From TrEMBL:
Annotated protein name in UniProt: HTH-type transcriptional repressor NanR
InterPro entries: GntR_C, TF_FadR/GntR_C, Tscrpt_reg_HTH_GntR, WH-like_DNA-bd_sf, WH_DNA-bd_sf
Organism: Paraburkholderia hiiakae
UniProt key word Transcription regulation: yes
Keyword tags: DNA-binding, Transcription, Transcription regulation
Gene: nanR_3
Pfam families xrefs: FCD, GntR
Domain HTH gntR-type positions: 17-87
PROSITE patterns (UniProt xref): HTH_GNTR (PS50949)
UniProt KW Transcription keyword: yes
Superkingdom: Bacteria
Amino acid sequence: MVTNRVRSGTAVEIKQPKRADLVAEEIKRLITEKDLKPGDRLPREAELQQLYSVSKSTIREALKSLEVQGLIKVSTGPSGGGMVVEVPLDRTLQLLQNYLFFKDVSIDDIYTVRQQLEPELAAGAVPHLTEADFAALEANIECCDGASGPHDHGRLVRQRQEDMTFHDILAAANPNPFLRFICELINEMIRQLIEFRNDTPIAEHRRFGASNVKIHREIVKAARERDVERVRALMVEHMTEAPKHVKRMKGKLRGRLILDSEIRKRVRMITSTSAADDKEA
């Protein structure tokens, strides 16, 4: 239904929300009121039809809308229906990149924010790091150490992407969920959106990698000693030096939108690459 509203002598067209969109809003309200968590199931389609007095096609359109938003997963079959899921970080990144695509965001802008947040994130994680976390941090460092293995451009770029996993591990240990979310989001932006020219000298990649490995090892050492202030200071140093390397390597943000096919296949590529290298050796 379309209605007209007259404003200062001009007819303004106002579109009424579609019935499926209204139902989707009501299902969101249902999720909130019933305090449903990821893994909880929504009422079956027939129940939702009866609850909102709409057709099966309207319910399915509403559920599809919520699935596109990343709030639910819809399955078919006798036991099918909608299930609440946690909105994936990849989907959030995609929505943010859709927004930033039309803004003039630079690598300097990203690292200015990281310089403020990463030291606090790392410092806050220190008291909560477990032996499993330290093992993961050390494994990541070894994985990203460019001193061994082949030094082709593709592998070195993947190592720089995998460097971000070190920061993800620290983020996961920080008890502040909002700080953790923001830092993980920035990490994923860097991993997916910063690209380096193919003619960037291998020596520059190796220099950046060696710098990351060195300071990551120092951060782990200080964290094992539970030296919060030392970890904070090292991360400030790290976030100050990293953008200098990126600029020398002529890194830039990809000027295009992220495709669904790209976020669905996001994997930690270094692990599989390392395994392949070991097999070849």
